[in-house]
Design brief:
The first copy, chain A, is α/β, with parallel strands linked by helices and 384 residues long. Chain A has 14 helices and twelve strands.
Chain lengths: 384, 384
């Protein structure tokens, strides 16, 4: 029996996944709080699931007419069509002109993997990637592993405490960049599905070709199925078909057939007006709830007399938003208060609930007061 | 608006998937028959589903206590444990010694993709792959795409009309090959779960390290979920953990979280003695049914007086088996009789049913008679 391993040169890998989450999990402090979950949380601290999903799942499992055969490599056709209509709008010029298509993927990570493999194979000269900071840990590493050089940029202006989408547009237009969008939770920004993908409509109207990964796991609450598509916009149908055919070959090697359950549930909802209405209503409730949380955070900081303007908290849409803290303040919250926040200060507001809001706002207040008094130069613009 | 496409150099890809299936689909002949489906078919010509799966799926969808959160990148722990116990036997020495582990993957194709990525990254010198012919189209191309040189070999001896597993053992032992097994449908060969993976137990007993992809889609009938694992056997736990940690990093980039539904159904069945019993019974029925079909095929060929010995048909186990026809005979069946058979003559016997068995056996008889009379040199050993 051999005692030497063929794996003897293989070292233990450094865990990529969330060093922040890892630290949080290892923390013994009883009141520790994690504000960086990727998904929308309920007031009870569980990942949110749209009620209409549970109902539809049950209906589907009771339907004897359904088959459970392999999906084609490209995936469930009706799901792709419904997802593209959701992403671009049913009457999108690009859809009418047959120059938008998609591949049903294993979640948005699968969509990224697939899209990046295509770019590596067919755009050999393009080796530089600009990625929004908040996406770097998740998707930037995939680019890096495939030999791309990754530069980070942020659309958050820490001085003006607001988003500046012009940064994105300037980069794309001046540098001849191929855009690769990520729509991880359409409907959970403003609850208006069209409004949430306005940037795609803009790029379509400007005649850009681009990729877009879309996750439908988070806005339906089907996290464990990884439901996604890689959407492709090309200048015409002929080019689109060429790109899709190459993507099919890559998907065949990656997973051969994407998983069906989540896509089937979502398609049933998107194609049934009554269920669609219920889903939209559930999105509205979530978004209203998050806005309410943000209002409360702002109000509590005001009542505590925390220095600074906190209007930016309620000016941002969606589950995730910037607190507008500097790195010293973030570090204080993590180290001293056991409140886990990413370095860029962008948190998931749906992680804040009645049980932890007081501790969080009081801690922010403490962090701001302490760092303000210890710093010579204040990074935040103060209002009187 | 730009009119030049950034995709202008991207051609239409040649379809990899089943050129045979494609030709079959394009054939207008009303009585065409496809005998090369990957999955087990029912007598009615539908993909087989174990009844216990439907029952379990319904139970799961009615359980309000379940959550639908993201699985860890490595997948569902209880599923991996149950799958490994199925593959190696609960009392396998390697499991007891903690040197067997697995990653929950998107089907067996995902397992292959993951395993091959690992080998490319950590065994840079190994660039040659020997693959069983029948697996070449599916998995060989993945190796090729990643820069490996692929050689085919067959364990089917076309002269002796039988399987010769010594070919495999000789290759592995003499060439210092790293074995990568594929167990696509455990239980559908002999209906004896242990018997069907005896080769793995042999390699474990000989102290080999190896990879094994396992699909649980086909032996449960959950085709549309791509339920698989990549199993790793190492010389000790320390090496195993190193390999698994590297695989985790690769899986993170590939799909981040594997799909849960199929794995959850299968785990519920494997961990419940009553459900497990029902599943085993369903496997037994399928295998008995296939054996009956093979007996009928052999008997019909005997009654037709078809030259040659056809005992090898019933001597082979499982859904797929060699008819023992030469390439000229196979070509005759495809071209003249619209019966679609792969070039190597290996068919899926579960595709043969009461509706098509007469046409198939009569056509085989015709093919053998015609080619025997036209050939100078007979490739088959005839018995008097």
């Amino acid at each position: 029996m051999p005692t030497l391993s063929v794996f003897m040169d293989v070292p233990l890998a450094h865990k990529l996944e969330g060093s922040l989450l890892k630290t949080y999990k290892q923390d013994d402090y009883p009141n520790k709080i994690f504000l960086a979950y990727r998904v929308c949380m309920t007031n009870e601290g569980h990942p949110w699931v749209s009620l209409v999903v549970q109902k539809t799942r049950l209906q589907i499992s009771q339907d004897p007419s359904l088959n459970y055969e392999y999906l084609p490599t490209m995936g469930l056709k009706s799901f792709i069509q419904a997802s593209l209509a959701l992403l671009f709008g049913k009457h999108s010029q690009a859809i009418v002109e047959n120059r938008v298509g998609g591949v049903h993927t294993v979640g948005d990570s699968g969509a990224f993997q697939l899209g990046i493999q295509f770019l590596r194979a067919w755009h050999k000269d393009a080796r530089i990637v600009y990625i929004i900071s908040s996406q770097k840990e998740l998707h930037g590493l995939i680019f890096q592993d495939m030999g791309f050089t990754v530069y980070e940029y942020s659309v958050w202006d820490p001085k003006k405490l607001c988003m500046d989408p012009d940064i994105l547009l300037n980069v794309v237009e001046s540098k001849q960049i191929f855009p690769f969008f990520d729509i991880p939770c359409q409907g959970l920004y403003t609850s208006d599905l069209e409004e949430d993908t306005r940037i795609l409509q803009y790029f379509v109207s400007q005649g850009f070709e681009f990729f877009c990964s879309q996750s439908l796991s988070k806005n339906f609450g089907i996290y464990d199925e990884g439901v996604g598509i890689l959407a492709v916009v090309a200048v015409n149908n002929q080019q689109l078909l060429c790109v899709l055919s190459q993507l099919e070959g890559l998907a065949q090697a990656l997973w051969l057939n994407p998983p069906n359950t989540g896509a089937r549930i979502i398609t049933s909802i998107l194609c049934n007006p009554a269920l669609l209405g219920e889903w939209k209503q559930s999105l509205k409730e979530v978004v209203e709830n998050i806005m309410l949380t943000k209002e409360k955070v702002k109000e509590k900081l005001r009542l505590l007399g925390t220095p600074g303007s906190w209007g930016h908290i309620t000016e941002q849409s969606g589950t995730h938003g910037y607190l507008g803290l500097n790195s010293q303040q973030v570090e204080y919250l993590v180290r001293k208060k056991h409140i886990y926040i990413p370095k860029n200060g962008q948190i998931n507001f749906s992680c804040i609930n009645a049980n932890n809001i007081n501790y969080i706002t009081e801690s922010i207040n403490e962090a701001v007061l302490l760092t303000e008094s210890s710093e010579m130069c204040l990074p935040k613009e103060k209002k009187p």
